[in-house]
Design brief:
single chain, 577 residues, alpha+beta, Rossmann fold, 3 domains, 6-stranded antiparallel sheet, 21 helices, 42% helix, 15% strand, globular, membrane, P-loop_NTPase, WSC_carb-bd
Length: 577
């Protein structure tokens, strides 16, 4: 017993010495604790990045980050995406492993890779590495994994990013709607469109990142594209990939002034004219028999007076089923060249004396209207709120305080006397409630250009949403009509139908001189990156008879309020039939 006690005493002596030492030097004690915690954190982080990388594990971490960081996470998704990209590139192996069939083709193809080469034919080789069931879903065929260089893209059409909700279908949908033949997904969240693949294909193992919006599908990898060939509809095919068919138009009175560049092309085709005008960096390709004109929309050639397409019927020399117009009637295509006449935007040079609201019920097209106003005026719009995702997409006035006086108008969804009377005047956007409610429901559950899931539409969320939001649609308009000073009403549907004149009226209401060239430029890029694709539609009517009865009554109330103030009532399509 004595020996046991002695042993314990001898063990306690070193501990007592350590305790006395740290009492005399507490700073060293806390430093040691800090080092211990730091080391533990690093071990934990390392385990998180190199441990289980399965869909469940990574999805759990993503959701944890989203829930912990809330709105900040959604406002800086690009930063988070780049951060994860760094970690993923570090994990990649230096060696490349591919299926046996790739080795031979890679050896045969060495020395044949050149800049600007069209690699579209390589897709047949890539097909061998995929199950046929995965390739064709009636909408698109998977081609393979391709290199993408940030300096020289494999697909050189339009592009867009979504670091939270990107899916294969969404990328295909957007590219097909714009008439492209190919859609490519990269880094799990980036979508690129194009008419040609201008890069070589690589091993399937290098396209290894899951889509941000659907963990079951692959969306490329770091500097790697998962490319699909799209099955275009007849309407889309008329766009000839990168060019959009605008219609048949009468020859302008002064054609050399309206369309300053032209050339005669032997064996004329739509592609040849579009390619020439694209190289000349013009947004319009105009076919007149064997002559191709290039230019921009101007008051001399505004594209506002469409002619019957039969007037332009004249077979192209090189293409039997294409029409190339004639001396009197021109066939017009819009190229992918950006018209920069309306792209410059600035803050107001001097502080605004009056605050102008851009007011709307959520889902009524406020973000789209801001895009149009900024392009038409050259000045940034502000917001009563702060949305980081909109700031990252180019709305630089989003970060300013709404009373700063540096923006041309201020977005707001507020209603109520105090909030409305804070503004000196207002542009009031009104949209069909049936459309506005669905748009806001999609935004709430799918983001600014995303979509709510079928589970949300069929669950309890949708009926509850309509019950709460439908009355607000009416009260929002009634409050602004009642309390607002100097209200300029714009109906979303009228703006879509007659963008030039309605937008011109909005610019004049804002007290600015109208530039017709800028307005024509806006018409060419009216959608921007803030439009949901119209191709994804519900397969059923989400509104019950009871919902429709209540909403129809609200429409009648708003219509009567507008007419009482000597304004035109709601557009015809709002009214119950």
């Amino acid at each position: 017993g004595i020996s046991v006690v002695a042993g314990r005493a001898s063990m306690a002596k070193p501990l007592l010495k350590i305790q006395r030492y740290f009492r005399r030097k507490p700073v060293r004690f806390f430093s040691l604790i800090l080092l211990y915690l730091t080391a533990g954190s690093l071990v934990f982080l390392h385990a998180g990045f190199v441990g289980d990388n399965g869909p469940g594990a990574r999805g759990g971490r993503d959701s944890l980050i989203a829930s912990e960081m809330g709105s900040w996470a959604s406002s800086d998704t690009r930063g988070l995406g780049l951060m994860s990209r760094v970690f993923k590139e570090k994990r990649r192996s230096g060696r490349r492993f591919g299926p046996p069939w790739m080795k031979k083709t890679r050896q045969e193809g060495q020395g044949m890779v050149g800049r600007g080469r069209d690699y579209t034919s390589n897709w047949k080789r890539a097909l061998k590495g995929r199950n046929a069931k995965d390739l064709d879903d009636g909408r698109a065929k998977y081609i393979g994994c391709y290199i993408d260089d940030t300096q020289k893209r494999a697909l050189r059409g339009v592009s867009f990013f979504d670091y939270k909700k990107m899916t294969v279908f969404r990328c295909q949908d957007n590219c097909a709607e714009r008439g492209y033949m190919y859609a490519g997904l990269e880094f799990g969240a980036e979508c690129y469109c194009g008419h040609k693949i201008q890069a070589p294909n690589v091993s399937e193992s290098e396209c290894n990142m899951e889509c941000k919006g659907e963990k079951s599908n692959v969306c490329g990898g770091p500097n790697r594209l998962s490319i699909y060939r799209l099955e275009l509809s007849q309407e889309s095919a008329r766009r000839y990939g990168s060019a959009i068919f605008k219609g048949c138009f009468h020859r302008p009175d002064n054609v050399t002034l309206a369309l300053p560049f032209s050339a005669v092309i032997q064996n004329m085709s739509v592609d040849k004219c579009v390619d020439m005008c694209t190289e000349r960096e013009k947004s319009l390709a105009v076919l007149a028999g064997d002559r191709c004109y290039c230019g921009f929309p101007t008051p001399l050639f505004s594209l506002h007076e469409l002619e019957d397409e039969g007037m332009c019927l004249n077979r192209c020399q090189a293409e039997e089923f294409e029409s190339c117009g004639n001396d009197k009637y021109f066939v017009v295509y819009q190229t992918q060249v950006q018209d920069n006449r309306c792209m410059d935007r600035h803050f107001l040079p001097t502080r605004a004396k009056q605050l102008v609201a851009l007011a709307s019920f959520p889902g009524a097209g406020n973000t789209w209207a801001r895009h149009l106003i900024e392009l038409a005026t050259g000045f940034y719009t502000g917001s009563y709120y702060f949305d980081g995702s909109l700031y990252n997409k180019g709305f630089k006035g989003e970060r300013d305080h709404w009373r700063s006086g540096r923006t041309i108008c201020i977005k707001t969804h507020e209603s109520g006397r105090k909030e409305i009377e804070a503004f000196d005047s207002s542009v009031l956007m009104i949209r069909n409630p049936y459309k506005a409610l669905m748009a806001e429901f999609n935004r709430k559950y799918g983001g600014h250009i995303g979509f709510a899931s079928q589970a949300h539409w069929r669950g309890k969320e949708w009926p509850e949403f309509v019950k709460n939001y439908a009355p607000w649609w009416a009260s929002h308009t009634l409050d602004w009509l009642h309390y607002g000073r100097n209200v300029h009403v714009v109906h979303f549907e009228d703006l879509k139908r007659d963008l030039f004149s309605k937008l011109k009226g909005m610019v004049e209401f804002l007290g600015l001189k109208v530039s017709e060239d800028r307005l024509l430029c806006v018409e060419g890029q009216k959608d921007g990156n803030f439009k949901r694709s119209g191709l994804r539609k519900l397969e059923y009517d989400p509104y019950t008879p009871e919902m429709r009865s209540n909403i129809n009554e609200l429409i009648r109330t708003v219509d009567a309020a507008l007419k009482k103030r000597n304004m035109s009532g709601v557009p015809e399509e709002y009214m119950p039939r």
